[in-house]
Amino acid sequence: MNYHQAISYLKKNRIFNLYLLVGKELLLKEHFLKVLKNRIFQNGNIPSMNCKNFYGGDLKTESVSNFLRTNSFFGSRKVAVIKDYFKIKPAQRKRLKDVIEKLVEGSSNKNILVIMSDEIKEDPLLNLIKKRGMVVEFSVPDFETLVKWVRNGVENKGKKIEEEAIYLLLSHRGDELLSIKNEIDKLVIYSEDKNLITTQIVAELLGLKKGVTIFDLLDAVKKKDKKRALQVIREITLKEPLPKIMFSMENEIKRLLIAKIFMERGLDYNTVKRKMGLSTHVLHEILVHLPNFSKIELLSMLKELYKVNISLRENYTLGILPLEVFIERFMHKNN
Questions:
Q1: E-only strand ranges, the chain
Q2: Is 173 within 8 Å of 142 (Cβ atoms)?
Q3: In order of start, what are the domains of the chain with their CATH numbers?
Q4: Gap between the Cα atoms of 203 and 212, Å rounded
Q5: CA 51 to CA 72: how far, in whole Å?
Q6: C-alpha span between 206 and 203 (Å, rounded)
Q7: Would strands 51-55 and 79-83 be described as parallel, antiparallel, or unpaired?
Q8: What's the average pLDDT block by block, 10 residues per block, for the chain (335 residues)?
């Protein structure tokens, strides 16, 4: 069951004694716990004595079982949350399973155990939860969902954000929602009285270098923006060595070619992502610009870059001239 389905269960007051929250998306896990507790303690006042976090490592079975076995003084249910579950020693995990199994068999005990884990492994207690409780998967959202999540997060705080600014934020902060949420909070404060969060504001907050970078060049190449590519190459060679620029261009074109081949073979999005070892947003950026190129054209570009490399090794005094010729030849669609 996914996060949204599990939340809908809670809203209908369908609450289990056992939960396994699996996956690396911590923010959604914490939100699920918050909704769960609010449903149990419906007046919004959550007694601290009724909720307790336990952590793996030297965790003793008795500490968890004693907490769950006794009834609450407040007449409501208790919630025990075990984090870092697989850091608990195997013998203790087996003992914990036996204790929990007896507790859930008792009709009078309505207390709740929640286990949080990055992954599912073979384990007696987890097998019990699969049979008697609910397993909720918290997978990393896809790129489109992340973009929507950022946009909604900013708009909920009374501001708007440029699309390119979202892409820039995701490219530097990855796909972990907690990290992105923290950046949104900082952006709202940093932008002060401005209603629109621009790409420049995001770049400043992320501490990116002012002026053009290799990423600007690669972006211009993917868009076949000849004018921009020539402008960037002339600026960037003042601060970056040519071999580094050449390597970056060659690597980007190789990625475009590999993606092109995979897509022509009919591979699905997730398979391409896994085979190329790319994050969701990086692959999305590649696929957006892929229609600008044919497979033959990408192969020709790689061959030409190889020739440029050879000419620069033989005569380094040529400077950026071979690269300018390369851009003039291949960046012809966006004149």
A1: 18-22, 51-55, 79-83, 112-117, 134-137, 160-161, 196-197
A2: no
A3: 3-137 (3.40.50.300), 143-206 (1.10.8.60), 214-330 (1.20.272.10)
A4: 12
A5: 10
A6: 5
A7: parallel
A8: 90 90 87 88 69 84 84 74 88 87 73 88 88 88 82 91 83 78 89 86 74 77 88 80 82 91 90 83 84 91 89 75 86 58
